[in-house]
Backbone:
């Protein structure tokens, strides 16, 4: 097991190098530079521009900049924002809990609804129930996230007035950040109504973010279940006199979970990508919105550092998924 | 009273090209301590008729029978929950592909103890002791250690022993063995058949062996049913079947056995007989 984990960790090194190179070069391919964008509407003299570029070290050759960046990374230094001068890592640690809270809630909803929906569709294969579930899943999968988010805002926030449009909690509440998870912090604060407020702010973004993973998980669960339900061991389980719940929920589902867990792991990347759109629509103060703002400002250090950290999160999640995979599938473990 | 009694069993599957009749008018009886063999080619409805009797066919199958009783109880009027109390406990079944028939995600110990948990009131400790005892009785060495193994860590023969142990866990009155040796090596086939016969004699249970191997029939059965394309062709005790087969199909079947070959090419059934001749020559 330890060998397996170390083997996986060794693969991370070239992956990190690749991500760092891509993150470094792609943001520099965009037209414009941080100095120009900082000056805004004012016209800057070419001399001043050169001087500022020199101060930021951006006039040096690309390879030298990349080498500096890499050596910084090796010592755990992700650089500082060109615009705010704050360390990238500090901002990330500060903002990541908001994204994590949103993503966790989304994946919980996607798994909690997607797996039962897929199982139900497989068991009732070919019926109107199966067709309805798969139809809804296809619509959910095909819908552009930003459009779906706007529709929900128009209906639930605008027309019904049930949910707020943007932010994480009502301005009436203020409490120190303990865990960074608004749901938990609001409970810890002991302020009446704070938790409910945080919940109403969380609901729409979570639904929007959960939609695509939910559809993918439901479809994957259905096809995996259909395959497993035809297996000999399912017939054996029924021949033992087990209840349909045990046959489907334990014998079949455990086997069907093997491909589904891989899918759930892959959805984490989709979630973080989706978080960028969702956070922008709902002004959710997480890393997605932070990254988008930084791209607009050509804040090279933040985009590079942010991408590296997001990549790290995705790789860690994938490692966990691989470990889980071994736990669910004994043929890998032994 | 017979242990299992079936009269005029018919099974139809709904297919895209209309209903398909897989079993057509099969009748049989098995008594306690009796070994019945059902023989026939692939697609003769041997397995389907037994799966139908146990209620294990998918919902697309339409099962009808004039009589379908186990130990005097009508299996057709029974609710699913009532039937589940009988199957696995009083009627057990083992299958053709032993490795595929065991769930790859659970240890064999879990799978055998599960039957005991569902059908008996035994404590966890007692279930484990019983599982060890069962593994010993089917000849699995180091049962304590083996209980923690997964199916893929065992050979086909070992897995079939696990299946047999699982089937016998609740001392069933009737064991249905669906081609129990087909997927195994010849030497292992012999071991498994001997084991089945030994356990059948010890427990005094009824045993239905589904097979296409006349050698298995000769070695094990008291009585034999021959099926072809879902219909029953002949029913006889094993001695008269081999010495004086009555139906043309059985005669053709026996003459096609390699051990009866006298040289040259083996005769096949279809080049000699048409379906109409086979059904016309059926002796029920």
Residues:
């Amino acid at each position: 097991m330890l060998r397996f984990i170390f083997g996986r960790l060794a693969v991370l090194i070239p992956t990190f190098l690749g991500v760092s190179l891509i993150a470094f070069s792609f943001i520099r391919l965009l037209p414009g530079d941080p100095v120009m964008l900082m000056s805004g509407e004012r016209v800057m003299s070419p001399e001043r521009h050169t001087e500022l570029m020199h101060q930021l070290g951006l006039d040096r050759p690309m390879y030298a900049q990349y080498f500096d960046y890499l050596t910084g990374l090796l010592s755990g230094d992700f650089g500082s924002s060109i615009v705010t001068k704050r360390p990238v890592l500090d901002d990330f640690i500060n903002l990541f809990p908001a994204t994590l809270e949103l993503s966790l809630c989304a994946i919980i909803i996607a798994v909690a609804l997607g797996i039962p929906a897929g199982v139900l569709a497989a068991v009732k294969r070919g019926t109107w129930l199966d067709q309805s579930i798969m139809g809804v899943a296809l619509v959910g999968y095909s819908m552009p996230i930003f459009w779906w988010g706007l529709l929900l805002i128009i209906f639930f926030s605008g027309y019904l007035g049930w949910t707020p449009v943007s932010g994480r909690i009502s301005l009436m509440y203020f409490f120190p950040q303990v865990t960074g998870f608004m749901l938990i912090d609001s409970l810890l604060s002991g302020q009446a109504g704070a938790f409910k407020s945080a919940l109403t702010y969380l609901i729409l973004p979570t639904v929007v973010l959960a939609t695509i993973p939910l559809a993918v998980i439901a479809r994957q669960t259905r096809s995996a279940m259909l395959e497993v339900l035809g297996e000999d061991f399912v017939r054996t389980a029924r021949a033992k006199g087990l209840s349909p719940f045990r046959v489907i929920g334990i014998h079949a589902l455990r086997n069907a979970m093997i491909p589904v867990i891989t899918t759930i792991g892959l959805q984490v990347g989709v979630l973080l990508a989706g978080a960028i759109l969702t956070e922008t629509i709902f002004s959710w103060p997480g890393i997605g919105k932070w990254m988008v703002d930084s791209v607009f400002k050509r804040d090279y250090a933040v985009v590079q550092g942010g991408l590296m950290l997001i990549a790290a999160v995705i790789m860690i999640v994938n490692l966990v998924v691989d470990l889980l995979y071994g736990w669910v599938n004994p043929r890998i473990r032994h | 009273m017979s242990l299992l009694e079936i009269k005029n069993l018919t099974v139809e599957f709904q297919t895209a090209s209309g209903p398909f009749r897989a079993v057509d008018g099969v009748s049989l009886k098995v008594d306690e301590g009796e070994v019945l063999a059902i023989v026939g080619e692939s697609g003769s409805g041997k397995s389907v008729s037994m799966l139908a009797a146990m209620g294990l066919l998918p919902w697309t199958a339409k099962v009808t029978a004039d009589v379908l009783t186990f130990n005097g109880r009508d299996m057709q009027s029974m609710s699913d929950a009532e039937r589940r109390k009988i199957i696995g406990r009083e009627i057990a079944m083992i299958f053709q592909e032993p490795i595929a028939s065991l769930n790859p995600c659970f240890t064999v110990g879990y799978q055998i103890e599960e039957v005991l948990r569902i059908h008996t009131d035994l404590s966890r400790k007692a279930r484990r002791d019983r599982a060890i005892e069962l593994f010993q009785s089917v000849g699995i060495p180091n049962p304590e250690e083996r209980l923690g193994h997964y199916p893929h860590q065992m050979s086909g023969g070992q897995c079939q022993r696990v299946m047999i142990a699982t089937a016998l866990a609740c001392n069933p009155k009737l064991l249905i063995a669906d081609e129990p040796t087909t997927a195994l090596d010849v030497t292992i086939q012999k071991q498994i058949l001997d084991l089945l016969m030994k356990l059948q004699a010890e427990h005094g249970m009824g045993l239905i062996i589904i097979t296409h191997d006349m050698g298995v029939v000769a070695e094990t059965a008291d009585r034999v049913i021959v099926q072809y394309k879902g219909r029953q062709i002949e029913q006889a005790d094993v001695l008269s079947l081999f010495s004086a087969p009555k139906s043309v199909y059985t005669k053709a079947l026996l003459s096609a056995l390699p051990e009866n070959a006298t040289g040259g090419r083996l005769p096949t059934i279809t080049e000699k007989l048409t379906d109409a001749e086979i059904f016309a020559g059926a002796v029920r």
Notes: The interface with chain B takes residues 231-233, 235-243, 246, 251, 254-255, 328-331, 334 of chain A (CB under 8 Å).
